[in-house]
Amino acid sequence: MYPPTARTTPHRSRDKMSYDQAAAHAVLDEAYDCALSFTVDGQPRVLPTLHVRIGDTLYLHGSTGSRPLLAARGDDGLPVCVAVTVLDGLVYARSQFHHSANYRSVVAHGTARLVTDEREKLAMLTALVEKVGAGRSTATRPPSRRELAETAVLALPLREVSVRARTGGVREDEADLHLPHWAGVLPLRLTAGAPEPDAGVTAPLPAYLRTPRTPWHDPVPLHGEHVRLEPLELAHADELHAATADPEVWRHLSVAPPTAPAETAEVIGTALAAQHRGERVAWVQRCAATGAVVGSTSYYDIDPERRAVAIGHTFLGRPWWRTGINTEAKLLLLSRAFDDLGAVRVAWHTDIRNVRSQAAIERLGATREGVLRMHRQRPDGSWRDTVQYAMTVDEWPNAQARLRERLLRTAPVA
C-alpha cells in the first residue's frame, strides 16, 4: 500500500480512492501514455508522453531539448505530477447531471531526476519497446550511442501514489427513474486494428501483433509435395500479382482483375482485414518445387460451434492449372478441417457460370446441394446465382483416398 499524503487525500468522493500498489501498477502497465505536469518560471505546463514502469520507478520518455528535461538537469530534480487514465465506459443516465464514466486512474507526485547512466537509459528503452510487444526488443536494432545521447529520460520514484476509479452502472435520483429515457453503460476498450506494414517490409507479421484466435482461425503453414500453404501477407503482393496477371484467373471472382501490384495489395489487404475480424483465414500458395508464389486460398464462413467451414476465395496462376497444386491444396485444407479441427462439414460456393470450378469441386468428392439465387454481386454490378457444394465428415474418408490416388498419378511441378 502507498501511504496517503496531503496531496493524495481527496476532499470528496473518498469511496473511489485506493492506495493499493498492485492496482496502481496495473493501470500504469496497461496505459501507453500519460500526462506529465510541472512548472516553468511559475507557469504550469502539461505534456503528453510515453511511460514505462520498472519496479517502483516510473520512467518518462522525452527529448533532450524539451522543457521538463532541461529543468530536471539541476541537482534538485524536477517536481512533477503524472496522471494516467484508462477509460472503461461511458455512463448514460436519465438526467444530464448524472452522466459519468467508468475509469481507472493513477496520479503520482514526486521529484523526477534526469537519467544520465547509459545502462539505466538503455534498460528503460528496452522495457518501453517490450511494452508494445513481448520480444520486440530482440527483433529490432538497439539504439546507437548517438541515439541514446539524443534521448532524455526522467525517472520518478513511485512513493506518493493514489488510484481513483469508478465502476458499475447508473447512479441517479430516484425521482428520475420514471423518465422515459434510455440509461445504461457503454463499455469502452482499446482495440488494435489490422497491422499495416511499412513499404518494403518482407518480414512476416510478429506473433505479438497477431490477434489471439482459435485453431479454426489460425493460418498454420501446410506442406505437401506439390504445394505449400503459408499465411498470406502484404509482402506477397508483387509475386502474387505477377503469377496471376491474367484476366481469365479473375473472371468469376468477386473482385475486378488487379492491373498493378498495388491493386493486388488491396485484394490482400481486404483478406487480411477480414481475417483480423475473424471472418476468414487466408493462405498464399507456393509451388513446392520452385518456391514461387502461384496463388491464394482461404477458409471463410468459419463456425467452430457448428463445426463447419467453407473453402474459397481461391485464385491460381494459369501456368499452374491442371497440375497437382490445386488438388493438393484442397486436400491439405480438407485434412486440416476434418482431421485437425474436427469439422463435420466443409462447403464451397461458386458462380453458376463457372463451369470449370464446378467440375473441379465435384472431382474433390463434394455434393452439389443447390443454387442460391441472386446471392452475390459481380464486379460489373450484375447479380450472380451461386452453386453451393459441401462435403460431410462421413464422406471424407472415401474422398481423401481418391484425392491421394489422383495425386500419385500427378507428377510434381518441375
Written description of the protein model:
The protein has helices at about 20-30, 65-70, 120-130, 145-150, 235-245, 245-250, 260-275, 325-340, 355-365, 395-410, and strands at about 15-20, 35-40, 45-55, 55-65, 80-90, 100-115, 150-155, 160-165, 185, 220-225, 225-230, 280-285, 295-305, 310-315, 345-350, 365-375, 385-390. The chain has about 425 residues and is of the alpha+beta class. The chain has two domains: about 15-185, Pnp Oxidase, Chain A (Roll), CATH 2.30.110; about 215-410, 3-Layer(aba) Sandwich (Aminopeptidase), CATH 3.40.630.30. It has an eight-stranded mixed beta sheet, with helices on both faces. Helix 5 (about 235-245) packs across helix 7 and helix 8 (about 325-340) runs antiparallel to helix 10. It is elongated. It starts with 16 loop residues before the first strand and ends in a 6-residue tail after the last helix. The model has no long low-confidence stretch (mean pLDDT about 95). Pfam families: Acetyltransf_3, Pyridox_ox_2. InterPro entries: Acyl_CoA_acyltransferase, GNAT_dom, Pyridox_Oxase-rel, Split_barrel_FMN-bd.
The number of domains is: 2
Put simply, the count of helices is 10
Classified by CATH, the class of the largest domain is: Alpha Beta
The portion of residues assigned to helices is 10-25%
The termini sit apart by 69 Å
Number of strands: 17
Structural class: alpha+beta
Largest sheet: 8 strands, mixed
CATH superfamily of the largest domain: Gcn5-related N-acetyltransferase (GNAT)
Shape: elongated
Strand content: 25-35%
Low-confidence stretches: none
Overall mean pLDDT stands at 93
Domain N-acetyltransferase: 227-394
InterPro entries: Acyl_CoA_acyltransferase (IPR016181), GNAT_dom (IPR000182), Pyridox_Oxase-rel (IPR024747), Split_barrel_FMN-bd (IPR012349)
Protein name: Nitroimidazol reductase NimA, pyridoxamine 5'-phosphate oxidase superfamily
GO molecular function: acyltransferase activity, transferring groups other than amino-acyl groups
